[in-house]
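Hi L.,

You mentioned the student needs an example of a multi-chain input paired with its predicted structure. This one should do, with 749 residues in total across all chains.
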Amino acid sequence: MKTIINGTGLDRIRIWHYDGRNVRFESFMNTAWIFVHGTPYDLDFLANQLDSVPWAGYSRERMRDVYGYMDGLRISIRPSLVPEIIRAIETIGMGRKYSIYNGDINPVLRFMSEKRIRFFDLENPEDMDVEIPWVSVVPVYSPGGLKHIVIDGEAIKPDRSGLEAAYEAIRNSRFIIYGNRGDSFTSMMKDLSNSGLYIKGIHAGKMSVYQSYGQVHYKSPWIRIDGKICMDMDSFILQESGMEGAYAMSRMSSLPLESASVVTPGTAVSSMEVSHAIGRGILIPLYKDDHEEWKSVGDLLDRDRGGLVLQPDPGLYCNVYEIDFSSMYPSIMVNYNLSPETVTGSERPMVGEFSHGGHKGFLSESLQHLLETRLFYKGIKWKNPVYAARDTALKWMLLTSFGYTGYKNAKFGKIEVHEAITSLGRDILACSIGIAHRMGFQVIHGIVDSMWVMGDGDVDALIREIYHETGIGIVLDGYYRWIVFLPSRSGIGSLNRYMGLRHDGTFKVRGIELRRSDMPNIVKQFQEDALKLFGQCMNPADIYSRRLDLKDLENSYMERIRNFSEDDIENFRINFKITRRREEYRVRNIQKQALDKFSRSGIEVNPGERIPVSVADRKRGILNMQPDQVGIDRKFYMKYMKRAFECFDYLVEASSPLCVQRDIREYFQ
Amino acid sequence: MGRTVLTARQIMDMVEKRYRTMEKIMCREDAEMLEDIIRNGRKHSPEISYSGEEAETGILLFSIIEVMNRLKKLEAENKP
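Structure written out for the whole complex:
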């Protein structure tokens, strides 16, 4: 069976078919059209101008965008000339007289959507993806130059034969996974070229640094080689869900695999909406001009709010159920029919006014397939890691589908939809809390789309009732023997720091050092050992009985730091994330000191990148960055370790028979 | 998360900062009470946020509720 694995081109689209052994190409002439709307007078004027353009044909048509029908000119043109004609129309209309539609669509996506064909199409959603023979090439540089090249997991010395091996691997494979951290792949290609091993048709992008959810991320420059599919092993989607996730994203978004691996999930979901619009004959605006509706300050204060997050009382709780809404925000969009054309002003449906069928708005309709597919894979992900990877990729798309409704440049975004979703989300969680109380449960904590409840009621009945009243799917995500919600520094409950032992013997931990990427291994090892220590504890009495074992464990780790052995150095390395440029650091913290050191070695480190260092002397700013440099600042690591002890000390304290945790006041007395 | 408007927790931070300036000239016992009131406000910030009520009003309301709860508890304990 042939599978479409890629598409390239502009005026001629080249479709890549893969039959399991070979890639075959099929070329098609490609055409494009744009739609221009304006006043009848302005349209007549534009038509007159177009009469003198031999390479563009036009017809007067009535077409629709998400809001309704409009009259305009449909201009047919070669795809490569679209930017040129848009520039001309904008000049004629002085940038304000005409609204242009379908002007900036990815040509391959447009071709695939118009022909109603898909990348990596599956006859049955449970089918496996086609197996593509990838070769991975990851050059590793050190301050002295190319250190080694990892080809398919095997490290090769960068001598002449090593370079030739890399050259052959790239030249002979059509599918390449590359690592380009710190421009390493680009530099290696230059080294190859300097050695007379020239690979033609290489294109490279630029590195970028961006912020997402308060985190700084570094994106290494993309690489393209003509006639090959190249994917960055550090790309978000490969890191999160592997190749299967990238195939799923390409399949769902109609973006070619290379593009799907480079773009963010937000762009992928936006592409999916564009593809859906093309299929439905709905016009896609070039520039969005449906600005935020007028509202009073009172309205703004009322509507501009996020999800509902409860404040847990710190303490230990037993027999707790965690129930989660499945893809809550996308489900709200689909089931409550929230779309730019269905939400106006402050009008929005109330909790319970959902419909699982009937006529849907554009956004609800375009997300429905994505949501259903994701929920399908979520249900069967235990069967096969491939389904789990597809579930992860689609989950990311769904997550960003909500965020994109509030993004000013999103083609089908509208801030009122965003506000309606969060408003309904708050009301649905509040309604669920009410149901839980009614059915005899105590609600311990709730974060936007999940709740922790305890009590003797029937949890299955609770889930059924919540689904019945809200129309949003909800599942039991965990049943805990015990769960401890940790206090914050101020003493009140921390929203996102907890550890719980499920009845199946597994732990769920959030917010503690174990989960942090900037903690040394030794700290994580302690917390893993501590969790093992409490893994058999069935109740608070069991936990309390292990308090001396915990002390022994803590002492043994402190002892390990005191008697540091050079072989242990890797466990003391901390992966610090660089969040700004060297000159932008105001204080001389470890990151700044490390950057200074790298800078002296002539290595540039970009914001968003991580640097592994061990601290030899914090006060004097002596850091070890090379594997052969050993020696640690014991005081510094002991401080780190003591912080890691705190959550387990609190667990034991909360399990004490003398401790009554339900009331926050007593905790403070 | 709000786009333009501060979240209830951010507003609570601002209110707390304002209240804390009083602490400097308060007697110790009163300052402890103020701490208690601020903590109550933080504890109940989800309810205040959900209702859209002003932070200061919410803090006062929940302080009264907490006092009434303590009173109820004391009454129950002292019942013959």
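You could point out the following to them. Confidence is low (pLDDT under 50) at residues 660-669 of chain A. Chain A touches chain B through 22 residues (CB under 8 Å).

Best wishes,
N.
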